[in-house]
Amino acid sequence: MPPQTVDKRTFLSAHPFFKGLEPELIDQVGSHAITRVVKAGTVIYGKGDPGDSLFAVITGTVQISAPSVEGKDTVFAQLAAGEIVGEIALLDGRPRSADVAAVTDCELIVINRRDFVPLIHDHPELAFRLIDILCEKLRRTNEQVERVTFLDLPTRLAKVLIELAQSGEASAEGRKISVTQRAIGQMIGMSRESTNKQLRNWEERRWVRLERGSIVVVALDKLTAVATAGDGATS
């Protein structure tokens, strides 16, 4: 059901970032929030754009990346329903530090900086929640740097698949992740060819199933063993 047809308080109250706030504060946030539906592949904002809004993901998945001078993207993360994006530029008012695009069809709630910053000043609990989000994303960034610097390909790949699977679509066959092999390779700092070779190896073992534009994690326990081993010995 499109968010335009649903009370924004319902969406905000259910979103992990806003959940538990006083009803009066939810109403204040809702009075400034607008809903937006975007199709897969849509660029939500680009690096260098004005940092004038915060986005809360209601449904779907968005991807955070940055282009290099060679024209190759570095994928930092994929965020699913229940997460927020754009909070850095929202707080400091500076241009966007990365590109954000919709991986799947998405429903978003957008709050402009001019409306949200006064609420942060008046309601410190919002500030503490933003600090928690920033700390969590900093930890993810540190883990990504560690993966690329110290871990071999199977371990890097297993860790990323496990992380993405947490918000993947669950079914009797496993957890479906809406991600391309190219994007996975960019996340772990490896070529698409090397990433595909390892994924094919795991597909033969029935640990994963490769689909167009997605990966189904079938044997999460096997990938966990690879990630835990840390040296790829079980790959």
Number of helices: 9
Approximate helicity band: 40-55%
Distance between the termini: 42 Å
Low-confidence stretches: 1-5, 231-235
Largest beta-sheet details: 4 strands, antiparallel
Which CATH class of the largest domain is shown?
Mainly Beta
**Element pattern in H and E:** HHEEEEEEHEEHHHEEHHEEH
Overall structural class, as computed from helix and strand content, comes to alpha+beta
Supply the CATH architecture of the largest domain. Sandwich
| Named CATH topology of the largest domain | Jelly Rolls
In which order are the strands of the major sheet placed?
Answer: 1-8-3-6
Strand content: 25-35%
* Overall form: globular
For the record, the count of structural domains works out to 2
Task: Please tally the β strands and state the result.
Answer: 12
Can you walk me through this structure?
It is a single chain. The N and C termini lie far apart (42 Å). Helix 1 crosses helix 2. The chain is built from nine helices and twelve strands. The N terminus and C terminus are likely disordered. It has two domains: 145 residues, Jelly Rolls; 79 residues, Arc Repressor Mutant, subunit A, CATH 1.10.10.10. 44% of the residues lie in helices and 25% in strands. The protein has 235 residues and is an alpha+beta fold.
Short note summarizing the structure:
Helices cover 44% and strands 25% of the residues.
Which labels suit this protein?
single chain; 235 residues; alpha+beta; Jelly Rolls; Arc Repressor Mutant, subunit A; 2 domains; four-stranded antiparallel beta sheet; 9 helices; 44% helix; globular; disordered N terminus; disordered C terminus
